[in-house]
Amino acid sequence: MSKPNSKLFNKKDLLAYFLIAGTGALVQLVAGGLIKDWFEVTYEESILPAYYISLVVGFILTKLFAFNARQSQQTRREMVKFLMVASFSGFVTWFFSVIPYRAINQFASDFYWHIPYSVKKINLTQVLTTINGMGFSFLSNYVLHKSFTFKSSGFYDRFKDLIR
């Protein structure tokens, strides 16, 4: 019989990861907006840079607070595996953000919310499709980090031997 914490979807790990992912999501939304404004890039072009900015925050918080990995003494190994999983999930985020956004724009124009007492308008269509992409990314990240990144699988050692 397995321990309760070894289950893939145990409540403690899922709640901790959800709170950490929420922090990363806020970082990603703010970074994406700033990247679009400061560098005058498109919505599609802002998603991955914002995702990778939030990835740094995500790794630190996940290492410290999720999956009981704080004392693992395998930070370098976990960083490599985290980057591999996050790169895949970055594509998931981009795909499930951009494809629905483009589909919506086929039938309707963007919906904006003007921040009171400000000149800033928030593109709610982009925010909602980004949150959609983040939801799919959350699922892939959680499962892969729980079962691969923060679990000793022997993969890192085989990968390290391969590149030597």
From TrEMBL:
Annotated localization: Membrane
Cross-referenced Pfam families: GtrA_DPMS_TM (PF04138)
Membrane-related topology note: Multi-pass membrane protein
Main location as per UniProt: membrane
Keywords: Membrane, Transmembrane, Transmembrane helix
Cellular component GO terms, alphabetical: membrane
InterPro entries for the chain: GtrA_DPMS_TM (IPR007267)
Domain annotation GtrA/DPMS transmembrane: ranges: 17-99
Transmembrane segments: 14-35, 47-67, 79-104, 124-144
GO BP annotations listed: polysaccharide biosynthetic process
Protein known as: GtrA family protein
